[in-house]
Amino acid sequence: MRYCFENYALDTDRRELRRGAEVVAVAPQVFDLLAYLVRHREHVVSKDDLIDAIWNGRAVSEAALTTRMNVARIAIGDTGEQQRLIKTLPRKGFRFVGMVREEQAASAAPVIMEPTAPPPHLSLVVLPFANTGGDPAQDYFADGITDSLTTDLSRIRGSFVIARNSAFAYKGKAIDVRQVGRELNIRYVLEGTVQRDANRLRVNVRLGDAETGQQIWAERFDKPISDLFDMQDEIVSRLSNALNTRLVEAEAQRAERSLQPDSMDLYFQGKAWATKGPTPEHLAQARNFFERALALDAENVDALVGLAAVETVHSSSHMVDDRKGHLAAAEAILTRALALAPQHARAHLWLGTVKLFTSRVPQGISECERALALDRNLAEAHFYIGIAKALDGRSAETELHVREALRLSPQDEGIFRWLYVVGAAKLQLGADAEAAAWIRRSLEVNRNYPVAHFHLAAALALLGSIDEARATVADGFALDPHFTCRRFLANPLSDNPTFLAAEQRIAEGMRLAGVPEG
Predict the structure, then answer these.
(1) How far is CA 102 from CA 6, 39, 61, 86, 382, in A?
(2) Total tally of structural domains belonging to the chain
(3) Spatial distance between the Cα atoms of 156 and 160, rounded to a whole number of angstroms
(4) Where are the beta strands (DSSP E) in 97-254?
(5) pLDDT by residue (tens digit) across 198-241?
(6) Does 213 fall in a domain?
(7) Which residues contact 189 (CB under 8 A, 6 or more apart)?
């Protein structure tokens, strides 16, 4: 059945929510919540009704229910203040009050086509995960991971993910990756297995290239069994974040071989350069590709967000003198991107980052929280909330938020920045030995981060290790030869007095390490 309201269509057969022609990515529980409210729109639905229907009576906190209700509202362009479509009735429950038109949905049976065009960029199918533990009762868990991954991977900007029902046509069948690729006209195939014994749960995944049949990436998730619902969320978050990185890398490699790259080819190459490490050279390369992508398609929202991210990182890493100018440029670009795509999670994330670095911390945190409501797996949003606490003079709270980012995405492409920020926060607090340990971990992951070298040098100098500090400064200058104490202090990332006092102490450590005044 398809339920149409305003410019949305909720297809319960395909388990898709569409806004016009665009698929709106929603988590399975949020989809079920919306579907239940729409189907029971003639009645007030109590919290107990929702818990019984969606969580099978499992104990769910009021905060968890409220969070999912807020996400459901955001998905259909509603808010808790407007309540245009979903109305809250105090002490009674909720009711869907929008005008709904019911239509019989088209058959959800998969259609196998002979492709008439090359597979779309970043196109993939998540095949049903196989339950290899021998207990048929665990099929629901394997299917739940498949459903959630299908939903969450569709949030990757520029991706094309085959709908669940088409993917489930392959359940229980021996498959050939290349044949699946030809039948569905896609570039990548994700397979997986789930095995549960008395005490542990193991999930194995493989990402295959549908053109060559070769395995691109594999991962295993193995941990003691606790709450299965929480475990499912954690598994999906980790896999989704890891796959995001691998798929962008694969698309960038394909784009390098293209004789006539299109706008998205150029975007993926820019994204690949941006993730190598924020040196002036890498950022310049990323900027070049994003600008070329926009020259071909001025409304390529992902390229706009990528360009704004380059501007923001450039300025926040003390690589420019006119920091405010670069941040103003980034904000203008993001405003345009959000006018084109109001629910672009990363656009909200980077707008939040710009606001953080222009002394609008509460608004910055709000944008990061908005990004998380749109994409629950966006670990980077937790990282920037951690930065916000440091900018607000509460560096002791930074580590907690970064650890949440690490939990969601322990192999993230940006992990070196996360580790560095905890080190910088420790340095702000005067915990110099801890700061050095965190920043060393950051540089072990990626040495292409000039500001991390200079902060490590400050920590070492303040600890009395002057020779090592001076060697570390030399490493930083090899990446950014124009760094000075003047540039570091002239463009503070916050006007908070506690933050500014700590920055003066860090600058003194840099001077001891041999960073010139400038």
Answers:
(1) 12, 10, 33, 18, 40
(2) 4
(3) 9
(4) 101-103, 123-126, 130-131, 160-161, 188-196, 200-209, 215-224
(5) 778 888 889 999 988 888 888 888 877 766 666 777 778 878 87
(6) yes
(7) 124, 125, 127, 175, 177, 180, 181, 207, 208, 210
**Nearest in space to 354 (alpha carbons), one of 318, 326, 395:** 326
SS3 annotation, 173-188? CCCCHHHHHHHHCCCE
Domain boundary residue, one of 223, 256, 289: 256
Tokens of 442: 């950051």
- Whether 127 contacts 180, CB under 8 Å: yes
With respect to residue 118, please indicate whether it lies within any of the assigned structural domains: no
Distance CA 487, CA 389 (A): 23
Structural domain of 479: 390-518
| The pLDDT of residue 355 is above 50 | yes
Residue with tokens 């607090």: 429
pLDDT for 81-134, tens place per residue?
888 899 999 888 999 998 998 887 654 444 444 445 678 888 889 999 888 877
Q: Are residues 174 and 283 in the same domain?
A: no
Beta pairing partners, 124: 161, 188
- 353: domain CATH number is 1.25.40.10
Cβ atoms of 379 and 241 within 8 Å: the answer is yes
Return the structure tokens found at 181: 């690729």
